């Protein structure tokens, strides 16, 4: 039944719907709590807001609730309590299509994001679903590929791509939806230094509201102006990225450590086991 | 007792290879998917409709797969390689015919050939033709194209989507099976295949992992506006050359079918 509703709402969504209600890139979470049916509490009383074009880092140890928070924001989990608004649209089963036209979500594993044969087909998947004509689909796809600098991969078979290429293509699949908000779940995972650097440059170039959940605190420091530290499902601290990420005591008490660039140089002693 | 799963990688490669074949820019690949589907269906219906003893009538129909192999630049050997797994099954289907139908049907150079042997060969050929035609349809159109054509034929969306997702699930399942098998074999040096004692947990794990993975893929589709309606490939209309291709093949089939009936 909900799929039928989603079907109707997708049909009613036209391109660039994101500007229709006048709000762009605003996430509002008030007293958000989430538990699984088993009763296990994952998120507790989360409250925060993002401004248009802001880049916010969500940091926390494994199991802190970062991924769950992002999943709630795009409506992959809808049984939460509290209020979640994406560009003033409440996230609920009835508004999924509208919410998802405003916010794109990047999976941790690119193999979960890409499911068609070629890059072009995958990037074109969303515009086609939103009922665009083939000319507009092509325009959207080429724009997205161009933004990511991967037009040369347009016809490449996905199974032949490297991890870095897949990550860039995955982001392009979101950009073709022209969202106002992008949610990244561990975007730098399994990337080599060069691809990670490319990713950081891309993230800094995208003038959208970004919520980046990651353990890669160096990446967060380079891409986010504000950080929300989560531990055991609750917000521990929120503030400017530099302020939070240089607080060694705070990070260590939450199973994190200073970003490498703030740790200072430690002479390498080799692999002999001597200290 | 052990099972050898080392062929999984080959199977995954074969699926990707088929998709790659369909993605080529050959003229036959550019023909509208609906046209190719209609031609294939017409061919299969005609071939299957031949009487079990009408072997001479069936023989000229080999033209279609041969010409299509040429057009799609696929060597006969490669095609046979792809479908060889089904050949024993085809042989098995008709293997008892010579026993149950042993009366001579025709004499060649004084030697009586039983109806059972003729019907067995006919059955084998029908199967071969149909499998080759299906293979060539997939290799020149791709699963997405075939699904698009099925939708144009007004096959219910739910069936087409189910078919497509099942196809995608098979590759996910194979990829997961490959991962599980590799993880197992790395910790079981010197063993051939998988010990039967751990089949249960291995298959259970495989099922759970593949369901989880398929769930993620489905979520990814939903997040990008998938609403149960098929929108995978570029929607195109058949052009003049597509109709010409269709007319040509239907004409050839008609000539072969009725011509042979007149001659024999």
TrEMBL record, chain A:
Pfam family, one: ABC_tran
Keyword Transport found: yes
Residues covered by the ABC transporter domain: 27-257
Claim: Transcription is one of the keywords in the record: no
Annotated GO MF terms: ATP binding; ATP hydrolysis activity; ATPase-coupled transmembrane transporter activity
Keywords for the protein's UniProt record, in alphabetical order: ATP-binding, Cell membrane, Membrane, Nucleotide-binding, Translocase, Transport
SMART domains xref list: AAA
Membrane topology (UniProt): Peripheral membrane protein
Subcellular location: Cell membrane
GO CC list: ATP-binding cassette (ABC) transporter complex
InterPro entries named among the record's database cross-references: AAA+_ATPase (IPR003593), ABC_transporter-like_ATP-bd (IPR003439), ABC_transporter-like_CS (IPR017871), ABC_transpr_CbiO/EcfA_su (IPR015856), ECF_ABC_transporter_ATP-bd (IPR050095), P-loop_NTPase (IPR027417)
Coiled-coil regions, chain positions: none
Classification via PANTHER family: ENERGY-COUPLING FACTOR TRANSPORTER ATP-BINDING PROTEIN ECFA1 (PTHR43553:SF24), HEAVY METAL TRANSPORTER (PTHR43553)
Entry's family note: Belongs to the ABC transporter superfamily.
Name the UniProt record assigns to this protein: Cobalt/nickel transport system ATP-binding protein
Organism: Anaerocolumna xylanovorans DSM 12503
Lineage of source species: Bacteria, Bacillati, Bacillota, Clostridia, Lachnospirales
Automatic annotation (TrEMBL), chain B:
Keyword Ion transport (UniProt): no
InterPro entries: ABC/ECF_trnsptr_transmembrane, ECF_CbiQ, ECF_transporter_component
Subcellular location(s) per record: Cell membrane
Domain of life: Bacteria
Transmembrane segments: 34-51, 57-76, 83-100, 243-260
GO CC annotation terms, alphabetical: ATP-binding cassette (ABC) transporter complex
Keywords: Cell membrane, Membrane, Transmembrane, Transmembrane helix
GO terms for biological process, alphabetical: cobalt ion transport
Keyword presence, Disulfide bond: no
Protein name: Cobalt/nickel transport system permease protein
Organism: Anaerocolumna xylanovorans DSM 12503
